[in-house]
Amino acid sequence: MLVHSTADRHLAVEQWLLSAARDRELARQEWTDRGVALLSLGGIMSAVRLPGRLVLPLTDADTAPSRDVDAFLAEVLGGGPVICDPRSLAYYCLVPAGTPHAWQDATPAWAPLEVGVLGRDAHLGVPRADCTGPDSFSPYWAVPMPSMGVLCEPTLVARLIERAAFAALLDHSVLCPNCKPTGTGPACPGTLEGLRKAMSRAHRVVRPV
Q1: What residues contact residue 205 under an 8 Å CB cut-off, 6+ apart?
Q2: pLDDT tens-digit profile of 169-190?
């Protein structure tokens, strides 16, 4: 049985990721200098942005980013690759390039959750393959790409969005004065109806009729 070293896997992953670079040499230099390279989405991969505040309530962790949140994402996404940006506290699930098109009907309903589906004309700061820990404010692999070209299964990402929408729905109904029966004033941006629609759209992606 052929066993590849961690260094070999990192090299193979980076070679594959460079296919998304407009300038491969510049991307390599960015990895060397800063640990992060700006790559284009919509060609070999797309990304689904999940705000940390949406993910954290689903875990046993007290804060994000953290190893506990990373482990949770690895479990629920079957080891599919996820990048964490600690500065914006967002997680980016790497998915097949065609996902934004497949999800175009669902994406608008996820606006109350601040979920973004990024494809063509979007770019993402992608860390070097060996940047795998929340040790600084730089992006890192919360869930490393296990081998070149392996991406998250979109259905698992949609199921995670569905769970997050349900959790947000419960929290919102308790905490938001505008959504309580006695509440007054204009509806807030994340109304119950909007969150219900977000959950419903995610449900349809996970379990199409």
Answers
A1: 103, 106, 154, 155, 158, 161
A2: 777 654 465 655 444 444 455 5
